Structures
1.
Amino acid sequence: MTDLEGRMTGGETTPDGEGVALTGLPHSAAMGMRLVSTGKGEATLMLPYSEALVGDVATGVLGGGAITALLDTCCGTAVFVAGDKGIASTATLDLRIDYMRPATPGRAVQAHAECYRVTRSVAFVRAVAWTETRDRPVATASAAFILERKPEKEKTA
Amino acid sequence: MTEDGAHSDLLDDLSASIPYIRFLGLVFERRGDEITALMPYKPDLIGNPLLPALHGGATGAFLEITGVAQLLSDTALADAARGELPDDYAPAMPRPIDITFDYLRSGKPRDTYARAIVQRRGRRVANVRIEAWQDARGKLIAAAHGNFLLGAAG
């Protein structure tokens, strides 16, 4: 677990299955998001279905914004675990979401993000969210994150 | 009920009856045909407690819902102009097709405002730009532009 990953989950390690609450990110925690797993530059998150996040009462479908928040968090997490130890913090620069189909009511939304390029200043990420199977996406995302780097150590003489 | 009454109720209903809008705590105000949305600060909206800064997802959702509210209001005004709105008036919710969010400044832990500009409203699709700010209207913290599907057709 990286420093930043620990900061997101309050230091808890990721078990199998239901994942751990993102207690380090108050808004994500309030929504009930969970970190399921991470790999190098990859993150899987889950948003359990919740009545509080419904955007259309007639159908019970979650608000589009809830999917946006899940994908944004998932992309940010993938940047944290990209393996660049010089990254102190990161912020979303831009995020594009394509909404493919409504999230199935009553089902958790899964999201997977892949950070596929890290430069000195910017990280590029793509992500997908689904409720049934990953090849039937609810939404896809493409994002760029600006990186705040740790101060470089002074060179010794 | 007056036309304006049914129309005003629509926006109050939006904040009262949609759970996710209530979860975010959003409030809408109408001046003429322009909606201003308010996202009052609460600790639940924070994404980075160290700065602290609003969660980009909360800001994004706020922008998106402001676009939906403006489109709904426009629909209601147009329907009201054609005749009195029934008490159970409930136009179909516009649904986002795609949205791009630009994060311009860190969202401070304080109230945020947003307004939407409908750049083009066609029969099926509306293209909307939405801007969010805090202290000054000219200093945007985020902006978005996107396409919304109008009506019930999926």
2.
Amino acid sequence: MMTSKWISVISIFCLTTVLLAACGSNESKPDNDRSAASDVHKSTAGKQEVLIDASFPKYNNLDELENRANLIIEGRVLSSTFKFLNVAERPSQPGDDQLNPGTTPADSPPIPYTIYDVEVQKVYKGAVTEKETIQVKQVGGENQQTIFKVNDTSELKEEGDYIMFLATFDNSPASLLNPIQGSYELVNNQIIASDKNLIKLEINDLKQLTE
Amino acid sequence: MKIRFMKLVISSLILLPLVLGLSLKVNAELTDIGSPTPGINVKSPDHLNDTWKTPINNAITAWNGTATKVTIGYSSASSNTITAAQYSDTWYGLNTQWRSPYKYTIQLNARTITRDAKNFSNFVKGTAVHEFGHCFFLKDNPNTTLPSIMKYSNDFNTVTTPRPYDIDDVNSVY
């Protein structure tokens, strides 16, 4: 009686393990058949999907973020537009083979960007003024035909308020230092970091920048 | 007889999860777009100077030398490209992949790489190896304590080749 009871318990345990393993192994493999299809794959919205993976510098602490950014603001996202941009610059310092790989802007394919109009609420670092509207760009977005999905990113939301750590450029909208650590959401005067951002930020930290 | 049979069944049921557990050693975190075949081509980056071309070649050699089925070859007829320029943005590298028909474009940022590299050749090679990794379904920053060329914490000045974790993940696909 006891023996048969134990047999039942062990069998149920093993069967559950097998079923869980089967589910797990199916989820871990990509859908190669779909990728290999010769006809165009359409998302449920009828748009083609393009995947972008971007690798960014990672910052270890707030000092590194503050030192690298040439613009730190509290900003409100007013609106956004999708645009292809060619952000390759004309070669500078022609004798520097590292800085100038040998290409011209015309050689580089344009990159899909979402460009946000951001109203500056407060300035902590940099040469902009309150109530000025600046543009901030992020790789990715969508147009009528295609979704350009960026892995591992945190998109800015319209009507959202953020603390932004930005790099500025002469002939291009500003960019967040990276999509995870470059912005902090501001909700009811609380600064909220994204889940993957381990660098804590307090209002006092920002006040020290302006002192 | 019946007892022996029951013992056999129980032993098998106990051993089966152990066998499955070994096969689940690789917990691959994979993207959902990548090359449908292990062999990919790319247009040779002859438009780049040797300062860039050489470490890119070394990155391709690094992948071709792994114990996987993946290979990267140069073909003038390929629609896949790898290039470098001074881009007005903050990323080191970008890999854009189209699902079907499959193609990819890798762009390396001379602005940020030159700024942050202490060993320039290594940094270009490491960034290129990382970006090619996305072609083989490898995801950024896998949740593992093991070394991986895909991790954000990598210093490309010293980390420049696919690691065993990456090789296992690629082998889980092809």
3.
Amino acid sequence: MIGFVESLRLWFAPARVREEGETPDYRFSLANERTFLAWIRTALALVGGGFAVDQFLPDLSWGWRIALALALLVVGVLCALRAVNHWMRCELAMRRGEDLPVSRFPALLALAVGLVALAMVVVVLFGWAEG
Amino acid sequence: MSCTVAAVLAGKQALHGGASPLALAATGFSLVLWLVFVVVANRRIHALVSARPVSMRWGTALGAAGCTVGLAVFAVAVVR
């Protein structure tokens, strides 16, 4: 299992990944890549959601609209960066023959998206809109 | 397709207040991000054609994630 510091170092010296261990079966690498793409899709959906909140909810009060949009955008950025990091860590673990890295990120993301959804429901139910 | 939707929403957001030079530049920026994403995806699709495809390069992963982050940063800049 690789730590935070090693993970950060690999961001700036990615060639080191290929120097470690043995090249895994390409099917495993492709499965890792599909997971990466799924996370990128999630990140793009969150960014799109941020745009959508800002554009399609004009009746929402300014504070709520900005807060919800920014929350989605920030989570989208984290999701994209984490996608790269997780892909690299999985690739390294497979080359070394180690267990795949586990992460709290999916649980935290689920909580964040749930909170944003809950906030939207509350805003709509209580009509905290302008005018 | 996700990137296209996000880029279209970005362009719509930029042009919301009219076609000022700044708005057009912002739209161009989102268009460039979308194009980079499509080029990166296209190159990877071509690389996957071989019988034993090599694993994805670091630059490809960073390119795709970079465009996503770029769109989000753009969104923060134009949010009203």
